[in-house]
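Homework-ish question, so no full write-ups if that breaks the rules, but can someone show me the predicted structure for this set?
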Amino acid sequence: MAEIIKVGMAELKVSQHPSILTTLGLGSCIGIALYDRIKKNIGMAHIMLPSSSIATASSNRAKFADTGIHDLIEEMRRCGSDIRSIVAKIAGGAQMFAFATQNESMKIGQRNAEATRAILADFRIPIIAEDTGGNYGRTIELSSEDGSLKVKTIGFGIKYL
Amino acid sequence: MADNISGLNNFHLDVLREIGNIGAGNAATALAKLLDKRIEMRVPQIRIMRFSEVSDVLGGAETPVIGILLQLQGDISGSMMFILDYPSSRMLVNILMGKPLETDLEYDEMTCSVLTEIGNILAGSYLSALSNLTNLMIIPDVPALAIDMAGAILSVPAIEFGKTSDTVLYIENVFTDGCDSVIGDLFLVPDDLSYGKLLEALGVV
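A: Not a homework solution, just the prediction itself:
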């Protein structure tokens, strides 16, 4: 049985084969799962906000899509991964509450997903599967065995990406 | 004024706890009247957490809960959330609908509307006490309801905090039925600048 490592909100972790990375209860946040097809290293980030442009100097970099993905890739490289063999799967970005008055801050899930796609594209990391949007929470589990991503929900079943 | 969490000292925390006491006291009275039932509350807790700890409040990130969220506007901003589990939602709705307590509950439009209204009444009475105390204008938005994983629901106010801070501050009140059975959790989550304003309004700077 591979070790299961938990990634909390605004955290990122990288581990080597055999291992499983999981993040629980993604709402509007995005879980970014990276898989190195050659070395079987895996990485996961749980980002909360699209851009670090609003950050103060001391901010936790893992909470933003841009700095979080950058640092996650760096960490994968430190573990010996070649960026060209890394593929991505993403999940989350839901809108948990539907409000009568739609203000910008409520669309944060959608903006997180858009930012995540754009940043991964900048690094030329292909997104080979995604499960984003909707109005429900997700728990994800990434296996180093084959890079499969298990997505669990309440009421919307379990699927594998 | 301390406009970030690390600047808060024990005295500030006591004042915030007292805010929770007064607000929730009013809310508990409202709930007791509504249900015609004895309602007690525990000592309010000020939870200051890193984001990675948020999802573990309420017994695990994947615990299914019902959350009613109201966004706050006016002199302070932030949100207020009432969170309850399936058994207590069943009890509350059955009492209000005049049905036997163990009647199964379908989470249809009617049920959700009843639960949303309970959240609305609790938040409204909490906030009016808070508003009277501080002389601040606090306007709650129309409430919204979600039934999902606790982590996903608690992350909504946390994200607002994330824009300015690396930690989040929740003023938590737990209501019980007097026999130690939890009815629900009421959270006031003033945003990063607003708890400073609350303290200032009370003359604590």
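Now go work out the reasoning yourself. Hint: Residues 87 and 183 of chain B are 9 Å apart (CA to CA).
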